[in-house]
Each structure stands twice: as C-alpha cells, then as structure tokens.
Amino acid sequence: MDQSIINFAVYEDSVEYAGMANATLPDLTYLTQTIAGAGIAGNIEAPILGHIDVMTLSLAFRTTTPQSIKLAEPRRHTIDLRAAVQNENPVNGQIEVTREKHLMVVVPKNTVGGTVTPAQPTNGSGEYSVRYWATYINGEKVREIDPVNFICYMNGVDYLAPVRKALGK
Q1: Is domain 2-167 in CATH 2.30.30, yes or no?
Q2: Model-level pTM?
Q3: Quick one: three-class SS letters along the chain?
Q4: What angle do CA 109, 111, 114 make, to 5 degrees?
Q5: Does 142 have pLDDT greater than 80?
Q6: What does the domain layout of the chain look like in residue ranges?
Q7: Highest-confidence segment of 35-49, 112-126, 127-141
Q8: Please, are residues 12 and 80 in contact by the beta-carbon 8 Å criterion?
C-alpha cells in the first residue's frame, strides 16, 4: 500500500545538490484529433500515438541560492529528482521504502524571484520546458518520454517503435 513520499532531493547532472525545493512534475497530455464524418454519430477524440503536448517542470525554492540561479541559465539542464517512498506491506504490516527517480532534460522558461520579508522564506520558483523525462522505480525504467527522438516508452513497451520503423529512423 503506497503511503507517502518520505523525502526527496533535487540534483543537477546527478551530482550537484540543487537545494531544498518543492517540485511539480509535468502533465502528460497526448495530442488529439477530432474525428467526424460518415459512419460516426457525432465526434470522437483520437489521441495520436506517442505524441505529447508540451511538458513543464516547476521547482519552488525556499531561498535564493547559487544553484537556483544556475538553473535559470538559458541552456539545457539535466535535473534528477530522487525520492524515497514509504509503502506498507498489507500482509506483514512492514514499512518498506522504494526508490523513485525522475530524470529530466529541461530548459528554463520562467523564473520568479519571490519576496524578501524578515523571518520568511523567499519562495522563488522556476518553470522549465521538459525535453526528456524518464522515471525509474527501484532502478527499473518504467517511463521514457523523448519527443525529439520519437520515444514513448511505458512499462516495457515503446509505443513509437513502429512509427520510427515506418519513418526509417
């Protein structure tokens, strides 16, 4: 029974701790087409196989740090979110910890400076355009979204493999 994230850390390039932050992961929205015509009593929506709308990562930092400024540099960044997740085994009642990792290649698109107030956090934040997103649970890849390289992998299936083959990629 999954219960909670115990804690998590934000890294850049898998080695540099990027500070205390709250993260809002991207939404995964497929591009769609409305299908209408003879033989259909109205309209239906058809999600296009493996084609993803824009994805955004949001990071909110408690204070302004050299690392939060570095993440605002107008270039590609490799972000690594590592979480320890608490689960309870319903059979034996034991608390178990699983590893969850989100690896993203991002480009900054918005930085909010926050506020400067005595005895309060600054609460600055940034929004980042996500170019690549992979998720690992206990070291096993369960998701890889890479629009540029035509990869839409989930739970062992790359849904764009036949599309790459059809396009000669």
Answers
A1: no
A2: 0.88
A3: CEEEEEEEEEEECCCEECCCEEEECCCCCEEEEEEECCCCCCEEEEEEEEEECCCEEEEEECCCCHHHHHCCCCCCEEEEEEEEEEEECCCCCCEEEEEEEEEEEEEEEEEECCCCCCCCCCCEEEEEEEEEEEEEECCEEEEEEEHHHCEEEECCEECCHHHHHHHCC
A4: 160
A5: yes
A6: 2-167
A7: 127-141
A8: yes
**Tokens read off for 150:** 């035509």
pLDDT level of residue 64 (50, 70, 90 thresholds): confident
Query: Confidence class of residue 15 from pLDDT cuts 50, 70 and 90?
Result: confident
Question: Given this model, what pLDDT does residue 140 score?
Answer: 97
The tokens describing 137, both together, are 């649970």
Residue 161's pLDDT is what? 97
For residue 11, count other CB atoms closer than 10 A to its CB: 18
